[in-house]
Every structure is written in C-alpha cells, then in structure tokens.
Write a structure and sequence with these properties.
Chain A: InterPro entries: AAA+_ATPase, ABC_transporter-like_ATP-bd, ABC_transporter-like_CS, ABC_transpr_LolD-like, MacB-like_ATP-bd, P-loop_NTPase. Chain A: Keywords: ATP-binding, Nucleotide-binding, Transport. Chain A: This is ATP-binding cassette domain-containing protein. The complex is a heterodimer. Chain A has seven helices and ten strands. By secondary structure, chain A is of the alpha/beta class. Chain A has a single domain, classed as Rossmann fold, CATH 3.40.50.300. In chain A, the strands form two sheets. Chain A has a six-stranded mixed sheet, sandwiched between helices. A four-stranded antiparallel sheet of chain A has the order 2-1-4-5, with helices on one face. In chain A, a hairpin with a 2-residue loop joins strand 9 and strand 10. Chain B has a six-stranded mixed barrel with strand order 3-4-9-6-8-7. In chain B, a hairpin with a 7-residue loop joins strand 15 and strand 16. The longest helix of chain B is centred in the C-terminal third of the chain and has 49 residues. The chains are: A alpha/beta, B alpha+beta. The complex binds adenosine-5'-triphosphate (ATP) and magnesium ion. The site of magnesium ion (MG) has 4 residues of chain A, from helix 1.
Chain lengths: 227, 823
C-alpha cells in the first residue's frame, strides 16, 4: 500500500465557529492507482488533497506513506518528502507571477540540487509533454487560463514524482483542452505514477481506475471501476 | 474635495496603520535631522554677520617662510606696523590692536579665569558691539577701565548693573585694579571676540616695553582695520609688499627691522572679517575656526537624511499604490476622472508629509539643544529660518513622494486590473524602482556610516597616539612668570616636597606651549648649506625621568659632562660658546641625516654659538595633531647659573590620585607665588582644545549616521513587511514544491539584502575618497584600510539583516496551505 489514511480529521477553528472539513477519513491508495475524488463544493476535497500533499496537517489521525508515518515528521522532512515524491496541480494553478513559465517549471527541480543542464532538459521535455514550449519565456499573466493550467501540470510532472495530486486540473478548460490534460494524466499513470485527482466531471472521473465520493467531510462511496 | 482627501488619507491610515506610522516616523526623523543640522550650518555661516560694517573690517595677517620650516600664516602681526599703516594708507578709517590674554580675577583669595582681551580704546569704533551698560566712546579710554560681558557680570556679581564696581585682576603675578565701565550685550550671532568675557585697555607700560610693539619680528596679538570702503581691501592688499619693503627693512644690526630684504621671508595680507571663521582653520593664532568642508558635509548629511526619508515615502507610496489598484479600478469604472484621482492621491501625499513635517519640527525643538551641547556651539532654533524652510520641505517632499504613485495610479486601466487575477503588469517596474530606491538609500547611509566610523577611529587614534612622551602620571603647570633663579629654586623645592612626586623638571616648552622661540642653525663642516629653523627648548634636570622621551641615538644630558650645561641668557643673546644639545628626530632628518645615529657628534651653529648633537629623541607632540611637529633643539639647564625663561613645571607622580596631586601641587606653588594660579593639569586637559573640535564634529556625524541608518532601516522594514505580504503566496508555492524553511529564509534574506550589499559596493569608493581627503588634514593619521570598510559594512549589513529578519521568519514559517489561501 502506498498511501494509508486512518481516522483522519481536520477541524478549522475560528473565533466562534468550528468547521469540520474532514471527518474520520479512511482511505488507502495502492502504488500505480488513479483515484478520482468527487463531491459537491465545500465537501472537503481540497482539504483532503492538501493533507495528502502534506501542506496541511490533520487535526488527528494517521497518514502513512509507504513505510513512513508522515504525521510524525518535522517540517524539514516533510519539505524533503514533497520535494522528492510529490507533484501538485492546484485548482487555481498557483504559478509565481514574477517568474517566467520556464522558471516556474524549473522550480520543481531547483530544490533537488539537480545540475543545471539536467534541469533544463527535464523542463524542456515537460513543456513539450503539455505543449506550451512556445510560451516558455512568457509570464503567467500573459497566458490564458488553459495555458496556465498546462504550465502547472508541466511543473507537477517535471520532477517525475511517484504521487501526483491534481485539484480540478480540467476545471478551467474547454472540452478539447480538458481531454488533452486527461490524456497526459493517463499517460503518466501508465508509466507508473500514482494519481489522486479531484474533479467535478463524471466523464473525467470515469477515466480513473477508482472513484471516491465525498459528502460533508466524509467518504460515502469508494468504488473500483473495471476497465 | 479637501474633505475627500482627508477622508482618503484617514482611511488609508486605518487600513495600514503600520505603514502609515513608519512613513510618518521616517519622514519626521528626516525633517528633524535636516532642520537641526541646517540650524547648525546656518550658525556656522552666520559668524560675524551681525557685526556692523563687517564687510569693511579686515585683519592684517603675517606670512612667514623661514628656513627649514614650512611657511605659515599667522593672525598675530607685529604692532610695529600700526603707526606706519595709519601714515601710509588714508583708506584706513580706524585700527585696533587686540591681545588675547587669560586674566584672573581674584576675589576672596580665589582665582577665576576669564577669557580676556587687551585692546585699544578704538575697539568700539572698529567693532560696533552693543553695550547694555556704559558708553562705547569712553568705556576703554581710562587705563583702569574694564568692560565685562553680560555672562561674566552675572558670574561675578549676579547682576548686570555693575558700572563703577571694582575688580582686581591678576596677570602673570601682577595685580591691577579696575573699575567696570561697560557691560557688553550678548551678541545675537556668534562672531569675533564673542568669547570675550573681559576687555581692558592695553597697559601703557606694555606699549613702551613689550617687543611686539617695537620689533617687526615679534607679535603678541591681532590687528584689525576698518576701511572706508569695501573696495579698499584690494587697494591696500596690492600695496602691502611695498609697504613691507619700505617699512620693515633695516640694517642687519637693527633689531627692530627684519633685515635688508624683509620681503624674502615675510609678507602681509588682509583677511576680511566675514571670511574669517572658515579661513582661520589654516591660520596660526586665528579666531575660533571651523573647516568649511566639514560644515558643508554636516549640511549635506542633513539634506541626505531628508532625501532618505523622501525615498522612503516614495517607496511606501508605490508599494501601497499596488494595494489600492483595485480601488482605483473600481472608482474609474464608476466614472472618476484621471485628474480627480491624481488630485486625490497627491493631496493625500501632501497631507501625510505635512503631518510628518509637524512632528519633525517638534522633534527638532528637542534635538537642537542636544546638538548644541554635542557640538559646543550655541545653536538655537531660529524660527525665521525654520519657517522659511518648512513649507519648502513640505512641498518638496510631498511632491517627491506623491507624484509617482499619483501618476501611476491615475493611469491604471481598469480592465487590466479587474481582469488580471493578481498584480497589474506594472508591478515588476515598480519593484525595480523600489529596489533602486533602497540601493540609493543604503548607499547614502552606508557612506555616512563608513565615514563616521573612520572619523571615530581617527579621533580615538589621535587621542591615544604616542606623543613621544609618557602622558599618564604626568601633571603640567602654568609657566612660572618669574625669570629669577632664586624663585625658580624655591618653586622647585616646594614642589619637590609634595608627597607622591617621583620626578620634577622645568622646560621652556610643554604640552600646548604658550610661547615658542625659534632660531636658524646651520650644519657645520658640510658641503651643502643646510639651514634649519629650530624650535628652542631648555630642559632641566630630571627632564628625562619626567617626560620619558625615547632616545633614538646617542645619550641624554648628564651633569658629569661640563659641556652639557647650556648657555646662559647672555651667551644666547650674543651667540657665543660651545654646548652639547639634544635634537628631535625631525630636526635630524631636516639636517639631512638619514638615521638618528648619523646626527650624533655633528655640530650645528647659530652665528658664534656652536652646538654639538649628543643625542636624538623621538618627536614630542606638544602641538595639535593637525600641525606637523617642528624640528627642535634642546639645551640643558641645571638651574645653577642661569634661570629659565618662564619655565613650565612638569611632575611625574605615583602612588597618589591625580586630583589629590593637583591640590597638593597647587598649594605648594601658592606658597611661593601666591598671586599666580598654578593650574596643574593632566596632559589631556591641557591639550583638550586640540582634540575637542574633531571630537565634537565626530559626534554630530555619529548623530547623522544613526539618523540615516535609522531612516534607511525604517524604509527597509516597511518594504520587507510589504514584500512579505506580497510574497506569502509565492512562498506557499515554493514550500509545496519542497523548499525547506532554511532555503526560504536564505532566499528572502538574500533578496532583501542584495540591494543593501550593492549599496555597500557603491558607498565604499565614495567614502574612501571623502575620508582620504579628510585625513590629509591631519599630520598624525590612521591608515585607511579595508578593516574600516569591512567593519562599517558588516555593521550596516547586520542591522539591515536584523531589520528584515522578523518578517522573513514570519513568512518562512507560514503554513503552505494557509499561505496559498492568502490571495
Ligand atoms: N482555512 C479555513 N478556515 C475555515 N474553514 C475552512 C478553511 N479551509 C476550508 N474551510 C472549510 O472547509 C470545508 C471544505 O473546504 P474545501 O476547500 O476542502 O472544499 P472543496 O471540496 O475543495 O470545495 P470546491 O469544490 O468548491 O473546491 C469548507 O466548508 C470550507 O468552508
Ligand atoms: Mg476545492
């Protein structure tokens, strides 16, 4: 088992109100799986993905990745984990405005102390993969939503991570672009990457090997889909 | 409209209280420093400006170029010139002779020193100083007349209505009785003789006997001339060479003249009163002077502090403009014109600046007395001056800080802003502008910091530098006014009896010597005709033990050798005899000896007097560190046959505290000479005036440096806090991509400090040039090395790093998920 979440809970406390974003989540993902998470807006999908991506900590519960208990690790080890194993595609892209597309993508490799030449090679191939090489020297604000989406994907795959987390990677795209992105993800999955993807599109969810439905912070259905 | 501007400014202040506070504080400090240092500069430039007819008053200076010494200008000129001047130049309306003197007032057995001047009765006709009591026309016409300053009158009598009161003066042990005939008004502006506490007529006896009234070669005071017209200054100046040739020449045997060709070593010039304060920095015996470059540098420092503060305001305003972009876009969509928006933002900037300037003015009130005490100058807040500058500062810095943001903001195209999810595309340009401003700010601040550090090192250096003799455990007294062998012996015995005295000696020179005598010697038996003008000194027994000079070659005097005993006054005057002497290192070098050893056993002569060099000692620095040490010849006087000429007693003591020793020595002195103050002092106290000026100015620069660094750091801090907010999101992304907290901290610190580092690179050469030229004004100086720059730069970098560290840590520690939401 690659990922094993048990009794995961995430509470948000503000001054008076307490929101339960996630409640008693149990989820296992095997290496090489392609999982689609579905559910209505506000049911906790992004929160779950954030916890999987270790950029948010659960209030309680355990998160095992391979042989490691991630909730026990300190910040520095978590940073190293993200650096080495994780590719993250955000709902709102989260590209850095002050850097060109090329540099944005390179950022995924910079923290690995990879030699410059190898980095450039990887960046070039990632951009080719998603078809935005001609926009390499543009800034994010000069790109359309779809192009930014693809740049974000290129950044996530440049590091050849074991786990790709994608939060509505097709949310901003038209049907054709959406299909292209799904192609890329399927291709990566075929090459061995584990993918957890949030989507509102049932047709895209159908392309995954397994589907998880959420409602009000709970997993209500977890079904494997036969191919 | 005004209401809208006011509301807008208030809303901004409420929305960003920290930024607003930093902005106002920075500007207030800048304005305060600018005004305060401006007041100081104005004060220095106002010297003598309030003296009536100051433009046609001049001082007659002497220029000497004598063998073996660098030529120099002296404010003291022989009074023999005065009657000839009156005869030769009808352009002269009036003339006055002024002799500086420290007079003691004796009251109830206690001596009080007063800064005094002996002057001609024409004094008040030349200098139209105001009297609050008495009449200028007759205040100094009687020999027993005496004019007091307002302050001195208060000190002596506790009131200013003191006409007719009696005062007993003591000068060099001589008592005279005087009657107060006038009280000087406190002058509105500083100027010549503004330190005068007592003015008395020159005693008639002195006019008839003192050599400075009889001989061209002797001077004891200054000559001021009041001319009929300003243009007469150049008319007379052009004729002074002929005047010297005509009036100062005479047969070589004529003691009163300067020989057959006086113009070869002597000339005269006129120094306008209005230029004196800065001019006198290079003149010996001049009035209290200031280095114009230093004064200007202080002014520039103040101006730069204001510029730094303005740069801050610009910086913050552009940073905030970014945050207001959306508001502007909405306003424009709702129909606001570009002009209206421009006026709105400009108005807000001016309002903020005006508030800051008011605060700056209030701070200036507080700082001015501090600067006055630090600089030792009686600077006060002059409202005429301040209120003239104030609106200029408000408008100037208001425009500077308002114009760029106002233009940029009013130009934003609403669609661009509302469409873009984040910053408008102008962001990168603004960021570059902000960084450039930080570079400029820190370049200025670091330059000032480096300069201040060098000034501090140099002042410490000259204070503690080796002066050739051992300063600690040494006390030096006033010159003994009696040229009498018996009295000098009595004094020696009285002082010797004081417990704690380890060694005791007399010398005719001492630290900060009151008189210096020189004469020209030539090297005997030498192919080259080397002539050196040597400073004359006589040392008593135990001189070596008292001052501890370093012997570089040969030996010190020893009474065993008959020839060691120096000449008596008769032999000196006639120039006869053979004697052994010690010279200082400079003298040995001037005579052309490459090593001190080479000088030993050589013979030098002054007419018929032959002096054999038996030893060479390292230079004694009795004079200011700005002046070179002059070549010196020392004779020995064991006080058996001949008295010293006004010897200066020096005492080396141990096993006693300095203050106790002073009390005991002064008491012992009083048992021999009850009418003359002994004034035993440490060398530090005696030479205070040499070091005080540089130290005071150093303090002003330190103040400027602290202000500059403070303002620059305020700017950096607000920039960092702004950047931190702006970059939170980016840092969240970087963390998601696996950046560790350490990497983030290094990244942010690097980004914050890069402009500061660049600033240091720019500042270093500027500071180097400035300090090299400043140091060249010192004879004794430190070597400008990398250590000074590195220390100052690392200090500035450290402070800058501390300034941004808090913001950096806050951002670096933020949780990525939360940071990513911070959109
Ligand atoms: N920082 C926060 N503070 C308080 N409540 C939060 C916070 N972040 C998320 N929530 C709440 O947690 C719940 C889950 O939010 P989450 O973003 O995971 O929803 P989502 O399923 O991704 O929705 P969408 O499909 O709209 O993206 C929501 O009710 C949200 O209001
Ligand atoms: Mg979501």
């Amino acid at each position: 088992m690659l990922i094993e979440l048990t009794h995961i809970q995430r509470l948000y406390r503000s001054d008076e109100v307490e929101t339960t974003a996630l409640c008693d989540i149990e989820l296992s993902v095997e290496a090489g799986e392609f999982v689609a998470i579905m559910g209505p807006s506000g049911c906790g999908k992004s929160t779950l993905l954030n916890i999987l991506g270790t950029i948010d900590r659960p209030t309680s519960g355990s998160y095992r990745f391979g042989d490691d208990e991630l909730t026990a690790l300190n910040e520095a080890s978590l940073a190293a984990f993200r650096r080495d194993h994780l590719g993250y595609i955000f709902q709102n892209f989260n590209l850095i405005d002050d850097l060109t597309i090329e540099r944005n993508i390179e950022l995924a490799l910079v923290y690995r102390n990879m030699p410059k030449s190898l980095r450039q090679e990887r960046v070039a191939s990632a951009m080719d993969h998603v078809g935005i090489a001609h926009r390499a020297r543009h800034y994010p604000s000069q790109l359309s939503g779809g192009q930014q989406q693809r740049a974000a994907i290129a950044r996530a795959i440049a590091g050849e991570p074991r786990l790709i987390l994608a939060d509505e990677p097709t949310g901003n795209l038209d049907t054709e672009n959406g299909a292209q992105v799904m192609d890329i993800l399927q291709h990566l999955n075929d090459e061995g990457a584990t993918i957890v993807m949030v989507t509102h599109s049932p047709s895209h969810a159908d392309l995954a090997k397994r589907r998880v439905d959420m409602l009000d912070g709970r997993i209500v259905l977890s079904a494997g889909i036969a191919i | 409209m005004f209401q809208a501007i006011f509301d807008g400014a208030l809303r901004e202040a409420r929305r960003h209280p920290l930024h607003t506070a930093l902005n106002i504080l920075g500007l207030a400090v800048g304005v305060c420093v600018f005004l305060t240092l401006g007041l100081l500069v104005r004060y220095e430039y106002s010297y003598n400006a309030s003296v009536p007819d100051a433009d046609r008053i001049v001082r007659l200076d002497s220029h000497w170029s004598l063998a073996g010494t660098a030529s120099y200008e002296s404010a003291f000129t022989s009074f023999r010139a005065v009657p000839f001047l009156r005869d030769d130049f009808p352009e002269i309306e009036n003339a006055v002779r002024i002799i500086p003197a420290t007079l003691q007032v004796r009251r109830e057995g206690q001596f009080t020193s007063f800064t005094s001047y002996q002057v001609d009765p024409t004094f008040f006709q030349v200098f139209g100083l105001r009297l609050i009591r008495g009449l200028p026309t007759n205040a100094l016409s009687r020999p027993e007349g005496l004019v007091l300053s307002e302050g001195a009158a208060q000190r002596l009598f506790g009131k200013t209505d003191v006409i007719g009161h009696n005062i007993e003066l003591v000068r060099d042990g001589q008592k005279t009785s005087h009657i107060v005939t006038g009280v000087l008004a406190q002058p509105a502006e500083p100027g010549v003789l503004s330190d005068a506490e007592i003015l008395v007529p020159i005693p008639t006896e002195d006019i008839n006997t003192r050599s400075c009234f009889q001989r061209w070669g002797s001077a004891c005071g200054r000559i001021y001339l009041k001319l009929h017209n300003v243009t007469d200054i150049s008319t007379i100046g052009a004729q002074l060479r002929d005047f010297v040739i005509h009036r100062a020449s005479g047969a070589d045997s004529d003691e009163t003249s300067l020989g057959t060709h006086p113009e070869q070593e002597f000339s005269l010039s006129l120094v306008p009163l209005l230029q004196q304060h800065f001019y006198d920095i290079t003149v010996r015996g001049g009035e209290e002077a200031a280095d114009r470059n230093v004064v200007n540098s202080i002014g520039i420092t103040g101006f730069l502090a204001l510029m730094l503060a303005c740069a801050n305001a610009v910086n913050l305003a552009t940073a905030r403009a970014m945050l207001r972009a959306r508001e502007v876009a909405v306003c424009k969509t709702l129909g606001a014109s570009r002009r209206r928006l421009f006026i709105q933002f400009m108005g807000e900037a001016l309002l903020t600046v005006a508030t800051a300037c008011l605060a700056g003015l209030a701070l200036c009130e507080v700082l001015t007395p501090v600067v006055a005490s630090l600089s030792g100058q009686a600077v006060t807040v002059r409202y005429g001056f301040v209120l003239l500058l104030w609106p200029l500062i408000v408008i100037g810095s208001g425009l500077a800080s308002g114009i760029y943001p106002a233009v940029v903001l009013s130009r934003y195209r609403p669609a661009a802003i509302l469409a873009a999810t984040r910053m408008p595309s102008g962001g990168r340009m603004d960021a570059r502008l902000r960084n450039a401003l930080v570079v400029v700010q820190f370049a200025i601040a670091v330059t000032i910091v480096i300069c201040t550090f060098v000034i501090d090192r140099q002042t410490a250096f000259i204070r503690n530098a080796d002066r050739g003799y051992t300063m600690s455990g040494l006390l030096v007294g006033s010159a003994i006014p009696a040229k009498d062998l018996a009295i000098q012996h009595k004094m020696l015995d009285a002082l010797q009896a004081v417990p704690g005295v380890k060694a005791l000696t007399f010398g005719e020179l001492g630290p900060n010597p009151p008189n210096q005598n020189k004469s020209t010697y030539k090297l005997v038996n030498s192919a080259e005709k080397v002539r050196v003008h040597l400073l004359f000194d006589r040392a008593g027994s135990e001189y070596f033990e008292t001052y501890n000079p370093r012997l570089l070659a040969g030996r010190w005097f020893d009474p065993k050798y008959g020839q060691d005993e120096g000449p008596d006054n008769e032999a000196l005057q006639k120039g006869t005899g053979n004697f052994n002497v010690v010279v200082n290192e400079t003298a040995a070098l001037r005579f052309g000896f490459t090593t001190p050893d080479a000088a030993v056993d050589k013979v030098i002569s002054d007419q018929g007097l032959r002096a054999t060099i038996i030893g060479v000692i390292s230079d004694f620095r009795f004079v200011s560190p700005h002046e070179p040490v002059e070549p010196e010849i020392i004779y020995y006087n064991s006080l058996t046959r001949t008295p010293f000429d006004e010897p200066i007693p020096a005492v080396r003591f141990d096993n006693a505290s300095s203050s106790e020793m002073v009390i005991h020595l002064n008491r012992a002195w009083a048992s021999v000479l009850p009418d003359t103050p002994a004034n035993f002092q440490s060398v530090d106290d005696r030479t205070l005036e040499f070091y005080q000026g540089d130290e005071r100015r150093g303090r002003i620069f330190t103040l400027g440096a602290i202000a500059a660094l403070l303002i620059a750091c305020l700017g950096l801090y607000s920039l960092a806090s702004f950047t931190a907010v702006r970059r939170t999101h980016e840092i969240g992304i970087r963390k998601t991509l696996g950046a560790s907290a350490r990497q983030i901290i290094l990244l942010l610190l690097g980004d914050f400090l890069r402009p500061v580092l660049l600033a240091c690179v720019i500042a270093s050469p500027i500071a180097w040039f400035a300090m090299r030229s400043w140091l060249s004004g010192f004879d004794q100086r430190i070597v400008l090395g990398p250590i000074h720059f590195l220390t100052a730069i690392s200090g500035a970098l450290f402070i800058a790093a501390m300034t941004v560290l808090g913001q950096t840590l806050r951002v670096a520690r933020s949780e990525p998920a939360r940071a990513l939401r911070a959109e």
